[in-house]
Amino acid sequence: MTDLLSLGADVQWPDHDRASTVRAGLGDTARLGRLAPLAEWVAGVHPLGVHEAFRSIHAVVIDGEPGAAASAAAEAAGVGLRIVTDLPDWPSAALEAGVALADAEADRGTDLLIVASPEVRADAALAVSVLTNTEPVKVLSRGAAATDPEAWMDLAVHVRDGRRRAMAHHDNADDLLTAIGSPRLALLAGLILRASVRRTPVVLDGPVACAAALVAYEAQPRAVRWWCAADLGPDPLHELALTRLGQQVLLGVGSGLGDGLAGMLAVPLLQAAARLGG
């Protein structure tokens, strides 16, 4: 049976020498701002160079549909879309499905994978609350963002009660997934971590994808070197997860939709960084 801990053991480092060479050749990096470390990252995760980088980009949207804007952005950026709504019932089976999905993308030649899942629910909030040791009410949107007080209270209760059960497993990613009991979080974590094993860079789109990445990170911290975050939305759990991962976002749009839109919008920036490093 697949588990995150054994899966993470096969994650290798990106190409440090290639990344360092690109960094050294950029000259005045201060004027390039965030493009400089981004060009270095691209060189490390895709060492074939500018003329080969990001020819085959695919977005996987889990447990939801991309909106009209995301679909239009995918078409404009030439990004293939895969929508997965039929999830296994159990986290263990979902984890294996995520691994199989990552393998299928790597085998088809995908060299940049955008991972997204819309709609923040208790599973993502619970994972971030446990792994960042943050009180449940502080991982949930408040004020104007919480437009339905009864729904907010129900979510807070689910996260609070789930946290009591899951906190004992904060240091074991596989046991934590079992305690949370979320097939979509397990599928996402397996997909993101296996993509790292297969040396496929991942763009994390939205708070749910980042929450799943945080679970994968706990299983294998060096896998984070294969990931970048598209944007930072208004959900507190999004910022908490990215801070724990040490990730700076590519964009400043403020999108927290998690339906692939931010990832699509980030593609031209990544392609420009690839050319800068070429």
Please sum up the structure shown:
The chain has 278 residues and is α/β, with parallel strands linked by helices. Helices cover 53% and strands 8% of the residues.
3D structure, described in words:
The chain is of the alpha/beta class and 278 residues long. 53% of the residues lie in helices and 8% in strands. The protein contains 13 helices and five strands. It has helices at residues 4-8, 16-25, 29-32, 35-45, 68-77, 91-107, 122-131, 149-166, 173-180, 183-197, 207-219, 236-245, 261-276, and strands spanning 57-62, 80-84, 112-116, 202-205, 227-229. It has a five-stranded parallel beta sheet with strand order 2-1-3-4-5, with helices on both faces. Helix 5 packs parallel to helix 13, helix 10 packs across helix 11 (207-219) and helix 11 runs parallel beside helix 12. It is globular.
Total count of helical runs of at least 4 residues? 13
Oligomer: single chain
Percent range of helical residues: 40-55%
Q: Gyration radius, to the nearest Å?
A: 18 Å
> What would you call the structural class?
alpha/beta
SSE succession: HHHHEHEHEHHHHEHEHH
The overall pLDDT, averaged over residues, is: 92
Global shape: globular
Distance between the ends:
41 Å
How many β strands by DSSP? Answer: 5
